[in-house]
């Protein structure tokens, strides 16, 4: 029986093979949670936890929950419990986890519970929704913990690593060309340093700074207006009377290089200055507002945010309000609302009450929405504020509520 002859493909018509690769990997991130005053945390209650600040890994927010009296009632506070919680919205988030209780003796004998570097029979852990947790109800026996090298100076340190599982089709080329970082700032910075082509001089308390009108005008709308609209065309020197030389030098550095000298900011914030407003960072925040430098303003906000404490928050809040630093102001309001009882006892709060009544009202509004806007925990703060707004005090006396 004969059939149709087999058709042999034309070699010239063959198409080159293509390929693709499906890659599953983890995006890893770590967070260190320091619990200072462990002995004071005991007695919080079974099932009640202390939460770390939220941290972001793989596009999701996470938090470490530490239960000083344990999570299970049946354990009768025999163990401390530690969990990692999904702190943002997500469905079926797959991840690997590692919890490490740090040995503070220097011997390196840390207590580690890890998904990493071992075979997983059932794969990564899946968190179904916001609030889902992975961890250990019986993380460590409390009596042993309190006599161990993990507790030092009444302080515990817990390291957490999260590896969020992601999958994608990898269609990138095997070869790549590295593109160097932008160096435009260094080139413009050289113009400032060697004064080449400079056409304007600023006299700041006797110290002279040579600059270029076009560069200044391109970076600052305020300087553009002053240099090209309000300045006599023959005038080559401007006297600056409202800024210190150190501050003006840092402003020019930012305008030309789009960066700040970090060492100067660190030295400024760590010195024994009597007031936050006397630091270089605070003065630069004022200058950023004066010259319309939005990025400089945000950089200063970021630095000042790190200095927020119970004693400094009122002063930094007033500073943020004065120089329209909206992000810094929001952070200060949330911090003050969450720690209101302690903040109310600070000297800065007394100054806030006397001189910044509008900010006091904004703080009241923040306290009212504290649970929703600042991460919860505002109940105690609201009760303290209620006593103040009703004319009572914080000494524990009962205050009659207005109807």
UniProtKB/TrEMBL annotation:
**Pathway(s) served:** Protein modification; protein ubiquitination
Q: Which residues form the MATH domain?
A: 28-162
Please list the residue ranges annotated as the BTB domain. 198-264
Q: Which CDD domains match?
A: BACK_AtBPM-like, BTB_POZ_BPM_plant, MATH
* A family per Pfam: BTB
Xref: PROSITE patterns = BTB, MATH
Q: State the SUPFAM superfamilies in the record.
A: POZ domain, TRAF domain-like
Membrane-crossing segments per the record = none
Q: Where is this region: Disordered?
A: 375-403
A Gene Ontology annotation in the biological process aspect, one of them, is: protein ubiquitination
Described purpose of this protein according to its UniProt entry: May act as a substrate-specific adapter of an E3 ubiquitin-protein ligase complex (CUL3-RBX1-BTB) which mediates the ubiquitination and subsequent proteasomal degradation of target proteins.
Record family assignment = Belongs to the Tdpoz family.
Instruction: Specify the protein name.
Output: BTB/POZ and MATH domain-containing protein 4
């Amino acid at each position: 029986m004969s059939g149709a002859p087999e058709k042999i493909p034309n070699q010239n018509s063959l198409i080159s093979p293509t390929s693709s690769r499906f890659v599953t990997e983890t995006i890893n991130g770590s967070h260190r949670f320091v619990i200072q005053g462990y002995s004071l945390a005991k007695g919080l209650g079974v099932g009640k936890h202390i939460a770390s600040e939220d941290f972001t890994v793989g596009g999701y927010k996470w938090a470490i929950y530490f239960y000083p009296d344990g999570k299970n009632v049946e354990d009768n506070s025999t163990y401390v419990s530690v969990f990692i919680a999904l702190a943002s919205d997500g469905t079926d988030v797959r991840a690997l986890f590692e919890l490490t209780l740090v040995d503070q003796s220097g011997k390196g004998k840390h207590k580690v519970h890890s998904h990493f570097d071992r075979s997983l029979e059932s794969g990564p852990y899946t968190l179904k929704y916001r609030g889902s947790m992975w961890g250990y109800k019986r993380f460590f026996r409390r009596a042993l913990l309190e006599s161990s090298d993990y507790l030092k100076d009444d302080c515990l340190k817990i390291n957490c690593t999260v590896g969020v599982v992601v999958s994608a089709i990898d269609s990138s080329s095997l070869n790549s060309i590295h593109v160097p970082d932008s160096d435009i700032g260094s080139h413009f910075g050289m113009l400032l340093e060697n004064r080449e082509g400079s056409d304007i001089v600023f006299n700041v308390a006797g110290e002279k700074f040579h600059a270029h009108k076009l560069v200044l005008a391109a970076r600052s709308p305020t300087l553009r207006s002053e240099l090209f609209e309000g300045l006599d065309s023959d005038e080559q020197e401007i006297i600056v009377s409202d800024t210190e030389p150190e501050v003006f030098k840092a402003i020019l550095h930012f305008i030309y290089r789009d960066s700040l000298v970090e060492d100067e900011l660190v030295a400024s914030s760590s010195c024994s200055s009597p007031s936050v407003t006397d630091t270089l960072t605070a003065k630069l925040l004022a200058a950023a507002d004066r010259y319309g430098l939005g990025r400089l303003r945000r950089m200063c906000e970021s630095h000042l945010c790190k200095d927020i404490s119970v004693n400094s928050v009122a002063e930094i809040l007033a500073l943020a309000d004065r120089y329209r630093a909206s992000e810094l102001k929001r952070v200060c309001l949330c911090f003050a609302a969450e720690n209101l009882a302690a903040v109310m006892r600070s000297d800065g709060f007394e100054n806030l009450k006397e001189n910044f009544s509008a900010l006091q009202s904004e703080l009241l509004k923040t306290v009212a929405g504290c649970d929703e806007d600042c991460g919860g925990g505002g109940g105690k703060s609201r009760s303290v504020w209620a006593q103040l707004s009703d004319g009572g005090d914080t000494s524990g006396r009962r205050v009659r509520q207005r109807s």
